[in-house]
Write a structure and sequence with these properties.
six-stranded mixed sheet, mainly alpha, 25 helices
C-alpha cells in the first residue's frame, strides 16, 4: 500500500513544475515570509497581514524550506508525506478493526482514489486535517476497547490530534471528530456513562489541547489588536483585530454565508453529496456492498463501521447547511475507505458486480482516449495550451472551475499524458477480467498510478497557463526595475514566490487583501489608476504583470508606446515602461 501511495505522491513533489497562481503560491509565499522575517505568528502577503488561516501548514512548509531551501518542490514535501501517512493510518486502522486484508484494501482505496490526488495538487491543509481526524477517531475507539493495553496513551493521542486540528483549520479540526464521537456515544447509549468519560480523560485532554493550540492563538491576538470585538457586521473598511476576523468572520459568518469578502462560491448540496462517488473513484463502485455489512456495535468491526457512519454523516450534514467547496468532504475519505475496504474483502455478489461495472467504465475510457488521440493527431499546437482553452471566469470561484476551459482542440497539446492515460485504462480494464480478487484490485490500483502520473504530465503542459513562471524567467533576464501586479494578488501569486520581492498592486484592494490592509502597520502597496499613470511616466523602470484581457485598460491609461512587451505566456503578459534593447515591438 505504501508503495502505491509513494508512486503517486512522491512523484508529485516535482510536479506541477511550478507553483500555481492562486492559493498554491500564496501558501508557499506566506511560509517563506515567515522563514525570512522570523515572525511565525502573523502571516503576511506583500507586507499585508493575512489573518484568516491557521498556521500549522505554513510552519511545516517553512520548516521544509529551511531544510531543503526555498524551492517549489520543497513546499510540497509536507503535503506529500502527510498524504502517505494518511493512507498508512487508514490501512492500519482498517487492519485493527477488520483484519489485515480489509485494512490493506482500505489503504489501497485511499492511496489511489481520485479525490485525494486531485485536491492535494495545491498547498491546502485539508489532507493534514483529514489525517488528524482519522487518527483521533481511531484513538477514540482504542481508548474504549476492552483489550487495549495503553488506553491512557491513546486518550492523549486523541487530545493531541484535536489540538493539531485547531492549528490546521481552526474549529472544524475539533468540531468534526467531537461531533462524530458524540453521535456514536448517543447511538451506543454511552454518552452519559461516567466510566466512558473517565476513560476519555477530558480534563487532561483539554490541557493537552490548550498546550498545543493556545499559545499561537494568544500571541496572534496580542500582536493584532483590538483584542475583543463581537460585531456581526462584516464590511470593507472596518478592522476589528485578529480574533474577530479569525473566529467570527471566518468561522461563524462564513458558515452563515455572511462573510466579507465573499470570494468563494458554494456547491449545491445534492452535488456535494454525489461528487463523493467521483472523489472515491474507482473504489466507490464497491460502496453498495458496504450497505450489506453489519453496523451493530457488538465487536470491533461493527463499532468501527458505526463510527464511520457517524463520521460521514456529521461532516456531510454540517456542510449541507454551510458554504462548501468540492474538497470540503475530504475528511470523510478515510471513513468511506474503511467501509469500502471491509466490503471488498467479502467478495460478494455486489462486489463482483462493481468489478464488472469497472470493466465497462475503463474500457469506454480507453476507447475514448484512443479516439481523441486519433482525431487530434494532425491538429497543430502553436504556442502554449492557453491558445486552445476557453475562458469561464464565472466558474473560477470553485476549485475545479478551470475544468470548463478545456476544449476538444486542447487535447492536441496533451498527447503524451492522454496516451499514458489510455495505457492506464487498458491495464485497469484487462485487470478487472482476472478471476482472483487480489489481482483485480492490484491491477486497478496500478492503472490508477499510471493515470495519476498521466495527470501529472498534463499539469506540466498547463504550467504556463496555471503559473507565471515563464514571465518571471523573462523578468530575470531583463534590467532591474520595480514590480507592479495588475489587480488581484492571487492572479500572479507565483511572481511573489519566485522573485521573493514585494510589488505594488494596481486596483488590488479586494478579496483576501482587503481586511489586513486596514490593520495598523500594514504595508501601503495599493495604487489606483492615477498613481499608476504617474509612476509609469517616471524615468525609473517599472514592470507590470497583467492578463491579456486587461491590456486594453492599461492602454487607456498610458500611451501605447509606453507599453513595451517583455514576454507573453499562458494568457498573461509582462510589460515595461521603457524599451529594452532588442525586446521587439510595442503592444
Amino acid at each position: 500500500m505504501l508503495l502505491f501511495a509513494a508512486a503517486v505522491y512522491l512523484a508529485c513533489i516535482v510536479s506541477p513544475p511550478s507553483l500555481m497562481d492562486d492559493v498554491d503560491a500564496v501558501q508557499g509565499q506566506i511560509a517563506r515570509n515567515m522563514l525570512t522575517s522570523g515572525d511565525w505568528v502573523t502571516a503576511r502577503l506583500d507586507g499585508v497581514p493575512y489573518l484568516e488561516k491557521a498556521p500549522l501548514l505554513y510552519w511545516t512548509v517553512a520548516t521544509s524550506m529551511k531544510v531543503f531551501g526555498a524551492h517549489d518542490w520543497a513546499t510540497r514535501i509536507p503535503i506529500a508525506l502527510s498524504v502517505i501517512a494518511l493512507c498508512w493510518t487508514t490501512a492500519v486502522f482498517g487492519a485493527w478493526a477488520f483484519g489485515r486484508r480489509p485494512g490493506f484494501l482500505a489503504g489501497l482505496c485511499m492511496s489511489t482514489c481520485v479525490g485525494l490526488f486531485l485536491f492535494t495538487r495545491i498547498l491546502l491543509p485539508d489532507a493534514m486535517l483529514t489525517l488528524t481526524i482519522a487518527l483521533a477517531l481511531w484513538a477514540f475507539l482504542r481508548v474504549l476497547d476492552e483489550k487495549e493495553r495503553h488506553p491512557r496513551s491513546w486518550a492523549a493521542t486523541l487530545a493531541a490530534c484535536l489540538g493539531l486540528g485547531l492549528l490546521l483549520k481552526s474549529l472544524i479540526g475539533v468540531v468534526f471528530p467531537i461531533g462524530a464521537i458524540a453521535i456514536y456515544l448517543l447511538l451506543t447509549r454511552q454518552f452519559f456513562s461516567l466510566r466512558v468519560w473517565r476513560q476519555l480523560r477530558p480534563l487532561s485532554g483539554l490541557a493537552i489541547i490548550l498546550l498545543i493550540a493556545a499559545p499561537w492563538h494568544i500571541l496572534a491576538t496580542l500582536r493584532n489588536p483590538p483584542y475583543f470585538s463581537f460585531t456581526m457586521r462584516s464590511v470593507p473598511g472596518e478592522y476589528h483585530g485578529f480574533l474577530w476576523f479569525y473566529l467570527i468572520n471566518e468561522q461563524l459568518l462564513r458558515f452563515l454565508n455572511l462573510r466579507y469578502p465573499r470570494d468563494y462560491d458554494t456547491v449545491p448540496p445534492v452535488y456535494f453529496w454525489l461528487f463523493n462517488l467521483a472523489w472515491l473513484f474507482p473504489w466507490s463502485v464497491y460502496l453498495p456492498a458496504a450497505f450489506r455489512l453489519s453496523y451493530r456495535p457488538n465487536d470491533r468491526a461493527g463499532k468501527t463501521r458505526l463510527l464511520a457512519l457517524c463520521w460521514i454523516g456529521f461532516v456531510m450534514v454540517f456542510f449541507t447547511f454551510s458554504t462548501t467547496q468540492e474538497y470540503y468532504s475530504m475528511p470523510i475519505y478515510p471513513a468511506m475507505a474503511l467501509l469500502i475496504g471491509s466490503a471488498m474483502a467479502t467478495d460478494g455478489k455486489l462486489v463482483r458486480g462493481g468489478t464488472r461495472l469497472l470493466t465497462v467504465i475503463f474500457t469506454v475510457a480507453a476507447v475514448a482516449a484512443i479516439a481523441i488521440l486519433i482525431a487530434d493527431r494532425h491538429v497543430p499546437t502553436p504556442g502554449d495550451i492557453s491558445q486552445a482553452l476557453t475562458s469561464n471566469p464565472g466558474a473560477y470561484k470553485l476549485s475545479l472551475g478551470h475544468m470548463e476551459d478545456l476544449t476538444f482542440r486542447s487535447f492536441a497539446y496533451l498527447r503524451l499524458p492522454l496516451g499514458l492515460a489510455a495505457v492506464a485504462f487498458v491495464i485497469a480494464a484487462v485487470g478487472t477480467l482476472q478471476r482472483a480478487n487480489k489481482k483485480v484490485y492490484l491491477a486497478i490500483a496500478l492503472g490508477m498510478v499510471f493515470f495519476f502520473n498521466a495527470a501529472r504530465l498534463a499539469m506540466v503542459t498547463f504550467d504556463p497557463y496555471l503559473s507565471s513562471k515563464p514571465l518571471i524567467e523573462a523578468l530575470q533576464r531583463s534590467p532591474q526595475g520595480e514590480l507592479i501586479v495588475d489587480h488581484h494578488y492571487y492572479w500572479f501569486s507565483s511572481v511573489f514566490f519566485y522573485t521573493n520581492r514585494t510589488a505594488l498592486l494596481l486596483n488590488g484592494r479586494f478579496f483576501n487583501m482587503v481586511y489586513g490592509s486596514y490593520a495598523p502597520g500594514s504595508a501601503n502597496v495599493f495604487i489606483d489608476d492615477s498613481q499608476f499613470q504617474e509612476l509609469w511616466r517616471r524615468p525609473e523602470r517599472y514592470y507590470i504583470f497583467a492578463r491579456d484581457n486587461q491590456v486594453d485598460h492599461l492602454k487607456s491609461l498610458v500611451s501605447q508606446n509606453q507599453l513595451n512587451p517583455v514576454s507573453k505566456s499562458g494568457g498573461k503578459v509582462l510589460l515595461t515602461n521603457h524599451p529594452i534593447p532588442a525586446s521587439g515591438h510595442t503592444i
